[in-house]
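Summarise what follows for lecture notes:
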Amino acid sequence: MYVAVKGGEAAIANAHRLLADRRRGDRSLPAISIDQIVAQLGLAVDRVMAEASLYDRALAALAVRQARGDMIEAIFILRAYRTTLPRFGSSVPVDTAVMQIERRVSATYKDLPGGQLLGPTFDYTHRLLDPSLLSDEEIDGPLEKEPLSEPLIRVLDILAGEGLIEEDGDLPQDHIPGDLTREPLEFPLERDLRLQALARGDEGFLLSLAYSTQRGYARTHPFVGEVRIGEVEVELDLPELGFAVSLGRIQVTECQMVNQFKGSAKSPPQFTRGYGLVFGQSERKAMAMSLVDRALRAEEFGEDIVAPAQDEEFVISHSDNVQATGFVEHLKLPHYVDFQAELDLVRRMRAEYDKKQAAPELREAAE
């Protein structure tokens, strides 16, 4: 609620009614259902879940419908709802190594143990409008999903076996992961908090930063070690039982980026890692996240911080689209008092300026 706004209740109520009318659209057409949004606009639903930090397809679809398809507004709505939910505990870390894989590709090795699994992807489409989609007729029957149940070796483990890539860092046993939803951020951040912020950061912002790193503004030369999409099990550790209990499965996208590193006084030449993990099928976001993650590790590798993508405070402070939306969109709400104060100030400054400009002319006229 914008607390500076007072009055105008009737106008606001009518604006809400008009919004609801425009949301419904043409009454001669059937209303779009939540099930339809979940089933047919899945990538939009996945983005809303990822950036709202709440894995619930039905609620994400509801937010998309309520926001009339505005992704950032839907994320804002779902994020606000998330703050009302009770928290019962923390799950144990998910193990993506045993993911039930639906898609798994690598740009570093052609032949992989287990093979390349293209899965559902736009990568090889021609990006041409498909007129057949104008019809509601079924062209083909549904395909049965058959994700791999057998774990596949990670591509980066192949490099690790030769000692050509940095080890996957282990946190100390007594490390307690931070929670940016409960604690204010204090820079510099530990990597776990950075990854949390990136995971729910705006896809477009991260994509631009990731692009900048490829164009020379972070001196990285990345390769996609592996992108995998699939389901992982979420478990909750119950002390009274002495073992973890499965809560169900969620779909995630994981990306591990391989980057060159010339070495330092402490480390030999080797490849380094960038990591991305997000809810749902969100490859572009996971890849951008992994590129930015690597760029933000510049200080860790003794690299010069010369680019925006390497500046932790700049990146993290501006990556959240809910905060950005609130700060930008509040500008269109009433600022009458503030503007009148600045208007009076500019008028006084202008009068003083005009007076100074006129002073030499008056002196010349007097002489």
User: Anything to note?
Assistant: Strands lie at 100-105, 222-238, 243-261, 270-279. Residues 96-124+143-325 form one domain. The longest strand covers residues 243-261. The chain has three domains: 9-82, 96-124+143-325, 334-366.
